[in-house]
Sequence to fold (540 residues):
Amino acid sequence: MKRLILYLSFVVACQGSSRKLWIPNLNYDTVENWDKMRLPCPNDRIIIPEPTWTAYFQTNATLKEMILPMNSDIVFGENVQLNFASDPAVDLECAGEDITFIRNDTKKWFNPTNWKDEDLVVNVETELVPCTHDQVAFSPKSVFHAELDQSVSIATMKIGYETYTTSSLSNFLETVAGLSQFQRYNAASIELTQKTECEDITGCVCGNDKTALKQKICNLYTCPNIACQRSLLAKGGCCNMCGAILSMNYDSNKFNMKVFEQDMYDAYSSVEFMGTRDRKKRETDAEVYLYISKVTGNKIQMVLTDNVPGTNNGQAASDKAAEINDALSQNNKYGLLNISLSMTSDGKDYSQQENLGAGAVTGIVIAVLIALVVTIVLSYLFVKTRPFSRSWFQKDDPLDANIEMAPGIAVVDFMRDPGRPTQGFDNPMYDSPTKENFYMDPSRPFPTLSDDTSFSSLSPTEERRQDMLAFSNPLPDDMPDKMMKKTAPAEEDGVKAFTNPLPDDLDDSEPATIDDDGRGFANPLHISDVTFGVDNEADA
Fold:
């Protein structure tokens, strides 16, 4: 039962609107109100210059001297005492110097710097200024001076310990205290709707991002310097920022803003969304601040920033945004659509045209598996019909058979060493017109000397020019007769025959004539270091 009560309290608290707190004040004990950025000490002389609207002493103080303007209000809190001491020994650590009160100007209502969200770290400048459903508070024991030049509508307003309605606030603004703390122009008024709840389950738009109002707000805001290389501008933002932005549409029948906010803040923000004015800080190396709102155009915007210094600013926020984007892509329980992600860290943009449900994801997985199986089967059949491990040459294929080679395989000379220079000789028979081969038919008579087939003593190069099949006579005309054992036959038509220099009746006991290089007779086609093969005995 105890757990149930806590849960219900939590839900009710979560349904409350945001509370915006006014920051500037005219208090004596505010460091920012002094030019030395410290509080006065007993040996100091404080100066309140002209003009100064009001200086509020809400605590006891001891001073050496105080210089007041001619026209100003000095307000003392209840039971506050102001003492003056001329003895420096009162505070030995205080050297004593002049210190000036510098809070002498009014602060504008529409300046985002003057507001603080008590529940969240708001990183969209226009939404720091109170929205329609926000509760506005001015701190107790504080005096302020706010300037309002345009009518506004908010949910509630609390000044000090008193909560006002539209009527009671109008009366207060006409009092001395009201006139001194609110300076209004153009008949500006403040409407209090008392509507702290958004009646739309998908969330309510702040409205400060509309063009005219946004321009007014941004003109009053000074943008800080940023170090990231790629900055982003959020919807409703006045300045570029480092971090990440998630923008999305939603299904109005399914989306619940409060549930979505709660889950996102609990899971991903460095500051837990407690649903009350208390915030619990997570123990993390880098704090990531997450802000979710509904913006003009009925879009949900999620802005993430971090506290990482230097050029790495925005890196932790980008990593967290990518994690959120992945989670939302896999789980569509919120009814989000068309999620787009922009990040500072890597300059990339990611978008999803539509989130996929569980059924769609399952279908994609099945389709991928089917495609994989089909690919494997086709690859197996291809390998089976094309056995690359076997030789491309079949045993009984003729030498002139057509050979299919796999694509991509280069045709190389397998018979020659690539590193060895080419050796050879001019083939006098190559690329010459084919002559009739009378040896192919033994029944045909041997051609006469008048046929085109003849012998010549021309060089192979000269013979190729004449397009003839011939070779040089190994027995030139000046060969000595003593080299022949038989008389050569008579010449016929100018063609001289020759006799085997190693006749059949050469006695084995009688050595053959040997040339100087050790050969029995000169090879007319001999070329050094070249070996000629013989295909078969018939050709030999």
